[in-house]
Specification:
With about 425 residues, the protein is an alpha/beta fold. It has 14 helices and twelve strands. The strands form two sheets. The protein has a seven-stranded mixed β-sheet with strand order 9-8-7-6-10-11-12, sandwiched between helices. Helix 1 runs parallel beside helix 3, helix 1 crosses helix 14 and helix 6 packs across helix 13.
Length: about 425
């Protein structure tokens, strides 16, 4: 039998990305080694009581990658495929994501090896609270601030916040972000990733020779980020949404889709597939459709050397993490397709998480209008800086974003110095 190709180690990929930018910036070997190593890693094995009275031992991780610019920040995911190297890579990428939008944070990530789809609400609560007790010594508003990620949500954050607060003896809302508004969450957090993506697309459109009013948009992954971005691009900027998809397939209508009706159909049937008046297409076909803006908002590794040459969009805006492989980046650069990389395009979520944390620290709540105005300013300024570096260095936006982010971290490291 033919052997399958070995799985790509995400942390090796993350380190290669550091080397590429370190070469461009002429970073010395010592600093480069610091950038390629996490500051702190925690691995814990802990028992959880299941509904049937038995106990099962779960393994969890928390990696704090770099804290040169401030306390570490990053989500916690629940998934059967969680690994330490994956968490390391995600923590590194969070470091760069926070830096590219100039937040006073370092990067972190966490995860538990589990299958939440086969666990009850009670089991998930016990799993979360038990893991949170293991994290208490290394998290906190001034140390490391977790957030939701894959298969975790605002309820998960509420359990972590409550468990941490019980340990401290007083309420500490700032220990996590992505909480329900009732216990210190922020207005606008739920739509922040999609809204931030829409703002970056708006800023990039003139440089790509595109007017958003009347422009055609295709969205792979009509979930939270994808649907919010689509609605804002349509309602606020006058764009035309011609194709959307979910895990079961996609739909298209060159005259434009009624997003409210599509969302109602998905709510009733569980998928966008079969929406009346649309033509069925696959997720793969959606990526190659003739459109002005393509928003991959689903899974990683969707745009590859195999299909990059068939992409017809002027702008590819990565609402998902890692949808484009390096070989596809080269093709897009040669074809003069503007790529808005994930560490910039989907940084709206962590930006409003920062706003939530800031509100918690102040003990004061901002209005939705204030949150959106501040998000608009951050995303606008961040895109402008990345575009400036891309033009100056004659590189694509992904490399430019990494140059901006890593330079900011290196500057912080140099200013702080290495102890002792």
């Amino acid at each position: 039998m033919p052997q399958s190709a070995p799985a790509i180690n995400p942390f090796e990929t993350a380190k290669r990305q550091i080397d590429i930018v370190a070469d461009l910036l002429s970073i010395n070997d010592g600093t480069r080694e610091v950038l390629k190593h996490p500051k702190r890693e925690l691995t814990v094995n802990f028992p959880v009581r299941m509904d049937d009275g038995s106990y099962r031992v779960y393994t969890g991780y928390r990696v704090q990658y770099n804290i040169a610019r401030g306390p570490s920040k990053g989500g916690i995911r629940y998934h059967p495929q969680v690994s330490l190297d994956e968490v390391r890579a995600l923590a590194a990428w969070m470091t760069w994501k926070c830096a590219v939008v100039n937040l006073p944070y370092g990067g972190a990530k966490g995860g538990i090896i589990c299958d939440p789809k086969h666990m009850s609400q009670g089991e998930l609560e016990r799993l979360t609270r038990r893991f949170a007790t293991e994290l208490v010594p290394i998290i906190g508003p001034e140390m490391d601030i977790p957030a939701p990620d894959v298969y975790t949500d605002s309820q998960t954050m509420a359990w972590i916040m409550d468990t941490y607060s019980q340990e401290k003896g007083y309420s500490v809302p700032g220990v996590v972000t992505g909480k329900p508004i009732a216990i210190g969450g922020s207005e606008g957090r739920g739509e922040a990733t999609g809204r931030g993506c829409a703002y970056v697309i708006r800023e990039a459109a003139p440089h790509a020779g595109l007017k958003l009013k009347g422009a055609n948009i295709a969205v792979q992954g009509f979930g939270n980020a994808g649907s919010v971005a689509a609605n804002i691009l349509h309602d606020e900027f006058g764009a035309n949404i011609i194709a959307v998809s979910d895990s079961k397939g996609g739909i298209t209508n060159s005259a434009g889709l009624n997003l409210k009706a599509v969302e109602d159909h998905k709510h009733k049937t569980g998928s966008v597939v079969g929406f009346p008046g649309s033509k069925a297409i696959s997720n793969e076909e959606l990526l190659e459709i003739k459109t002005d803006v393509l928003i991959p908002a689903a899974l990683e590794n969707q745009l590859t050397a195999k299909n990059a040459g068939k992409v017809q969009a002027k702008i590819v805006a990565e609402a998902a993490n890692g949808p484009t492989v390096p070989e596809a980046d080269k093709v897009f650069f040669e074809k003069k397709i503007t790529v808005l990389p994930d560490i910039l395009a989907n940084a709206g979520g962590v930006t409003v998480s920062y706003f939530e944390w800031a509100q918690n620290i102040q003990g004061y709540s901002w209005t939705l209008a204030e949150v959106n105005e501040r998000l608009n300013r951050v995303m606008t300024e961040s895109y402008a800086r990345v575009h400036e570096v891309a033009e100056q260095r004659k590189v694509h936006n992904r490399t430019a974003a990494y140059v901006v982010a890593i330079q900011r971290v290196v500057d912080a490291l140099k200013i702080r110095g290495f102890f002792p």
